[in-house]
Write a structure and sequence with these properties.
438 residues; mainly alpha; 2 strands; 61% helix; disordered N terminus
């Protein structure tokens, strides 16, 4: 660990030199698949330690394209390389190793047209946890990415930060507690940097890493309060990301600040973001504010309020929720009403499962499934046998994210699902749930 830190500090020093023109051009290229047979893994791993930056770059690019799991540890050192392009190739390689769908960075179509694809950490992060495969991520890889997020080069730093946020979702149980304890102060500190893009990335990563799970302990106040401070950021995107993070973290110390923001904005995107964060935290003190939105004119706020009241868990609010749903037949409000019914009175989940096949409702429905599954995964047993593979896929992924080890018996039969994507999702879910089994 100390060695990784030492190498990372070297990488943060002002570079005395830069790669040659040939090196800069070669960063846009990757080794064609047929070359992987000519340069085996062990040679590429040795080349990562070469004194020649072009050799190190080619090795990192090759390992990026072949995505050997065994390359994860050798590449961790390359993430701290003294040359930016080697670092970026190594970060892309680490991502490609752990993505469910490997990215082919260079291929030919009809032997004529060359198609090039980049491995961008922000895109992988935005795709969400379902983009990851079932491989465990070594802590050395996460440490290297975390150290690189403080690199002098903003591009390297942000790529490393998003890669850390993407792969940092994987650990569970004791490994997750260790990761959060070590990384929380580091990522929170980035919320105070001068670079707005880096602050935005840090807020998003905080929301992903610290999103509340059943086995999590309390969030360190220093870490959580840093996100509250980011609510005052001059950049609107950073402010919105901070609100989202507080909601995902269910950080109760943020309730008052979020309530004040909602009162200040009253309507619009910022008001919706503040109320959504309050609805996710679901502190009982927010119930009156949520109830007040049930009779307002704003459909988005009404749906958010229904979600929040469902999470608060007060069954006495069911009558108010039903009245609001009856008065507003929009898809979002109807779906939120089904979510509330499922949480508060063990209602049917069929409407929620059906929404998984609708593009505009899918993300919200998947979130509902994960939240319900955290308490009663067994209610989705019928949906796991649905003839529509889209429903099976999203249900099994959501159950894996819900974090109830008892749901493993529901997931395991889908390891042999006739649909390849569903089977891979079941593999991911099983890996996550087994990590939580005592």
């Amino acid at each position: 660990m100390d060695e990784l830190g030492r190498i990372a500090r070297m990488g943060r020093r002002r570079r005395a030199g830069r790669p040659s023109v040939l090196l800069l051009l070669s960063c846009c290229l990757s080794v064609p698949p047929f070359l992987s047979a000519q340069a085996p893994f062990d040679q590429a791993a040795r080349d990562l330690a070469s004194t020649d930056p072009e050799t190190r770059l080619r090795a990192a690019q090759q390992l990026r394209d072949t995505a050997y799991p065994e390359a994860a540890l050798p590449l961790a050192r390359a993430v701290a390389d003294t040359y930016d392009e080697v670092q970026l190739a190594a970060i892309g390689a680490e991502l490609n190793i752990f993505l469910a769908e490997k990215v082919v960075t260079r291929k030919r179509v009809a032997l004529v047209v060359e198609v090039r694809n980049q491995i961008l950490a922000e895109a992988a992060f935005t795709a969400g946890p379902a983009a990851l495969g079932a491989l465990p991520v070594p802590p050395e890889v996460l440490d290297a990415l975390r150290f690189a997020s403080r690199d002098d080069n903003p591009r390297v730093a942000i790529e490393a930060l998003y890669a850390f946020g993407t792969l940092g979702f994987v650990p569970a149980g004791a490994a997750r507690r260790t990761l959060l304890g070590q990384s929380g102060p580091d990522v929170a500190a980035l919320l105070g940097t001068q670079d707005a893009a880096k602050r935005y990335a840090a807020a998003r990563v905080m929301g992903r890493l610290f999103a509340r799970r059943a086995q999590d302990g309390p969030i360190d106040a220093t870490v959580g309060d840093a996100v509250i401070t980011a609510l005052n950021d001059s950049d609107r995107a950073v402010k919105a990301a901070a609100m989202s993070a507080l909601g995902a973290m269910r950080y109760e110390r943020g309730v008052q600040a979020l309530t004040d923001l909602f009162a200040f904005y009253g309507k619009g995107d910022n008001a919706e973001a503040a109320l959504d964060a309050l609805a996710r935290i679901a502190h009982p003190s927010s119930a009156p504010l949520l109830v007040a939105q049930l009779t307002g004119r704003n459909t988005a706020l009404r749906a958010i309020a229904i979600e929040g009241l469902a999470r608060v868990g007060d069954q006495a609010r069911l009558a108010d929720i039903r009245a609001a749903a009856d008065a507003d037949r929009s898809d979002a409000v109807t779906l939120a009403g089904a979510f509330a019914s499922a949480l508060l009175e063990n209602g049917s989940v069929e409407r929620i499962a059906a929404a998984l096949t609708k593009a505009k409702l899918r993300d919200r429905a998947r979130q509902y499934v994960a939240e319900i599954a955290a308490h009663r995964a067994s209610v989705f047993a019928a949906q796991l046998m649905d003839p529509d593979e889209r429903i099976r896929l999203d249900i099994v992924d959501a159950i894996g994210l819900a974090g109830d080890p008892a749901a493993l018996s529901l997931v395991e039969p889908l390891l042999k699902d006739r649909d390849e994507q569903v089977a891979r999702a079941a593999e991911r879910a099983a890996m996550r749930l087994r990590a939580l089994t005592p």
